[in-house]
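Appendix B. One record, verbatim.
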Amino acid sequence: MDLGDPSEATARKAQLRRAVQQRRRRLTGEEITTRAQRLAEVLSGHISDRTTVAGYLPLPGEPDPRVFLEYHLRRNGGQPHPHGNSSDSDNSDGDGNSNGNSPSGAAGVYVPVIPEPPLRVLRWAAWTPQVSLRRSRWLPVQEPLGPTWALDDLLGSAFSSGDSPTESVPPQEIPGEEVRTGDRSRAHAAAALVVLCPALGADASGRRVGQGGGYYDATLGSLLTALPARWRAAVELIAVVHSEDLLPLGEIPAEAHDIRVDAVATERGIISTRNH
């Protein structure tokens, strides 16, 4: 659905958001927990243990990736805070922004930190199940204490100085086909950085509709602008939705600022969108 009138596209997205939010309010805690376990199986079968993961802490009703994030840390040996524990602020300014230091090269897990308005490009802080959290000053979300980095810093830390991500290749799923959890022969991405993008809806072409704040479009747009072309295959953008929020093609209107994702993950499997 390509709507020529931007106001019409905005209205359609608002309608989609209301419908999904209403549907998610009916999910029980038990359903969310069960789906989190299944989502962890799907993601762990798709994402390499060598991959740095930019995840998220879920809002009520969102698919919960924390079971996977914790498992990902365990399988690659755990992730200490890149510069000590979360109270160590020697490498950050007063707002927690890093002063030029990069995160450790080991594959780890990071979650968003909301920037001060009017900025929209997210910062990223290291996450473990034990990290201290605080409520964001700007939105009703939880954030880790400690230094933060830009998304492209997380990608750069995955390679030693001067390296090219030649071993990182796009996943080999069949476009538009959900890859089941057990199909590991072609569901194992070699991306150096995977960004899990929470969404209210997504489709097999890679279009997604978020909460409407524009943070992920701004953040992903900034990353892709800064990314050398030879590194693009080293990054995989994955929208995460409930299976019923995987929408038919054409349901999500396209706007100029929208960034398409490379895949869509649900508790049922992965759909590659790269060839749409």
